[in-house]
Design brief:
This protein has 2 domains: 66 residues; 139 residues, 3-Layer(aba) Sandwich (Rossmann fold). It has 219 residues and is mainly alpha-helical. The protein has a 3-stranded parallel beta sheet. Helix 6 links the parallel strand 1 and strand 2. 47% of the residues are buried. Helix 1 crosses helix 4. The chain is built from 11 helices and 5 strands, in the order αααααβαβαβαβαβαα. One of its GO terms (cellular component) is cytosol. This is HAD-IA family hydrolase. It holds the Pfam family Hydrolase.
């Protein structure tokens, strides 16, 4: 089960800039470094973490919508992370079921799927609409398990943020992480990642020895 933003698509910093502009437009001065560390968390949780508790929460939906509009400007320039498309195909060739599990909305995920060009190897795709709560709640991965007809003991999460690891852990899932989203190996390992790679290409290069390769081999 693959997270998308930062894991398969090089978009984490674009989301950071979009959130920064959205907060500024609403009159909130939020430093970029604080935003970046929360990318991968659901929009509602991210806003709650970054803005004062005594704010007018009626503005939250508008801030989220502004982020979406600002991020959409970058869609034409989106690119996969290094080796992302090849890794998805390698997983399928090895007999693994591949499910995308993103906290982004359907429209954003559709734009990223087009960039990946890998729909033919996907068993299922889950988005924010499939989860009542977003990461770090486990709902999106629970939905992905169901969509892929998978059991937790026969599944692995691949992500780029501690929220992916924490969400996976709540379901008894191991998480393999990549640092292509800008989060350090140290932080990801401290969160509980069972393995960390620089990017999907590095994971692909070590596929046979990786947790994905061991899962495919039934080890």
């Amino acid at each position: 089960m693959f997270d998308v933003d930062g894991t398969l698509i090089d978009s984490s910093y674009l989301h950071t800039v979009a959130w920064w502009h959205a907060f500024n437009q609403a009159g909130h001065d939020v430093p970029m470094h604080r935003i970046h560390r929360l990318i991968g968390m659901g929009s509602e949780q991210l806003i709650d973490e970054l803005l004062p508790a005594d704010r007018d929460t009626d503005e939250d939906d508008a801030i989220g919508a502004a982020h979406g509009a600002l991020f959409s400007v970058h869609w034409p320039g989106l690119k996969p992370t290094r080796g992302a498309t090849e890794l998805l195909r390698r997983c399928t060739d090895a007999g693994l079921v591949v499910v995308l599990a993103s906290s982004s909305n359907v429209t954003e995920v559709a734009a990223m799927r087009e960039v990946l060009g890998s729909d033919d190897v996907l068993t299922a795709v889950t988005t924010a609409t499939d989860a009542e709560r977003s990461k770090p709640a486990p709902d999106i991965f629970a939905a992905a398990l169901e969509a892929g007809d998978l059991r937790p003991e026969h599944a692995i999460v691949v992500g780029d943020a501690r929220w992916d690891v924490e969400s996976a852990w709540q379901l008894g899932l191991d998480a393999v992480c990549v640092t292509s989203g800008g989060i350090s190996e140290t932080e990801l390992r401290e969160a509980g990642a069972v393995a960390v790679y620089a990017d999907p290409h590095a994971l692909l290069e070590d596929f046979e020895n990786s947790p994905l390769g061991r899962l495919a081999a039934g080890r």
